[in-house]
Amino acid sequence: MADPLRLEILSLLEENARLTAEQIAHMLDLSKENVEQIIKELQDEGIILKYGASIHWRKAGKRRVNALIDVKVTPQHGYGFDTVARRIYLFPEVQSVYLMSGAYDLSVALEVDTMEEVGRFVEKLASFDFVVSTTTHFVLKKYKEDGIILDEPDKDRRLVISP
Amino acid sequence: MNLEEKISPIVKQLAPSGIRRFFDLVNTKPDAISLGVGEPDFTTPWHIREACVDALERGMTSYTSNQGMPELLEKISQYLSDRFSLAYDGQSEILVTFGASEAIDIALRTLITHGDEVLIPEPCYVSYTSCVQLAGGKAIAIPTSSQNGFKLRAEDLEKAISPRSKVLILCYPNNPTGAIMRKEDWEPIAQVIKKHDLLVISDEIYAELTYRGHHFSLASLPGMKEHVILISGFSKAFAMTGWRIGYVAAPEILLQAMLKIHQYTALCAPITSQIAAFEALKNGLSECEAMVSQYDRRRRFVVKAFQEIGLTCHEPQGAFYVFPSIQPLGMDAHTFAEELIQEESVAVVPGDVFGPSGKGHIRCSYATSLDRLDEALRRIERFVKKKRKNILLSSIS
User: Fold this and answer.
1) SUPFAM superfamilies, from UniProt (chain A) (predicted)?
2) Domain residue spans in chain B?
3) Which among A41, B130, B348, B380 is least buried, having the fewest CB atoms inside 10 angstroms?
4) Distance CA B345, CA B337 (A)
5) Does the model's ipTM exceed the 0.85 cut?
6) Quick check: B41 contacting A, CB < 8 Å?
């Protein structure tokens, strides 16, 4: 059973990684030391993976190319999905790799600077013995990412004072 | 023609809202962080909005029955039973209104004749007194204080009762204090209500926003249902303020009387809002719960922050307001609020807007993101330190 206190700290940090241990302690009615201890445990146990910012790169003037590649593979003896996935996810340009049910096996998300790089990556992928086929989809526009709607500013429309 | 003279004396004597005046001042500071807002910062959950969009696309644009759509009335009946152990018949004891506001108005107009006295624990929501006056009644305040956590006490109620007392308006969880009443707080009050045959208008719009424990509805005490007109709505629990949708539940005789006013003055609540309200009760309770847990976090954060700033603040257990005392600073709440907005661009509401017993307090709403609350409280801390220093300096010189 997951500890509800740990879950609460995680959801606070997921929403805003910049909260200090002191602020979290206030919100959850704990001591600062207690919160620091729990956060340290969560980091040590590999539950908190990293603290990052969600960035609207296009707005920042940086253009990136995103592609989703459906990959069909044939796992061989002693060479299962996990090993195949590892061969792929170690490439730094790979953002995520999921094992899927359905028409194909691995869903690979790629983020690079140019279309040519996508082409080179797919070529590399297709040359692996265990890869049966690949289908590449380019992302044309991002509307929502990591739960955040990108081009709809979170505006407070309320009256400033109301009874 | 002197138009001023044409206005009815009852309307003329209504006090302009104290909030209104302050609102104009705040509007000169567009970048202010507002803790003055009496509504959720969440948007209505998407599935509720979507249900309304879908209904519009299907052409649901007609009147409904005066009382409200039967399936919504049934749903409200079931909800009141599930959540608060209340037994109201959807066909004869519930009426869907334009927000809780209309419900308060028609309840008062149904009960009050000229000169009847209406008891109102204070500080209280700004509309009650004016609605009583519009109905021809006389509002009698029952002051409550921070020493008692702003709860209503039986002895204070007893003291305020006169032969003309007819109605008691209650609002727990309370705006502006955040006070709540537990079962044991209600029991002695119920005795007084029975003894004097009072009718209660119980505004339970904040019922779902009760922290550490469950809301207890006065009408669920044995023998109390016939004394109570229960008013609630969707605004606070489901973040639906702009939809203007609420309801009133009462014994059939009273409900049918209120329905008469409603059918002639409002006809029916908007069908789009009724459809959204139905969806809220059907599928929205988990979102409501998630919002409540967010409010609870903020509540604990804000109470602690005020304690550290050194402004005493009783712990509110409902709604989304804290009501700290600013008395140690030796300034009245209006001056505090006006200087705070001018010097630190933070808007709060002076406590005496909610009646004289709110004086020396400010109402801060925590229906605002934690980031903004954090920034606002830093600014309040800086402001309070500066004022303290001024007091110290003036006492030396």
Assistant:
1) Dimeric alpha+beta barrel (SSF54909), Winged helix' DNA-binding domain (SSF46785)
2) 3-44+286-396, 60-284
3) A41
4) 10
5) no
6) yes
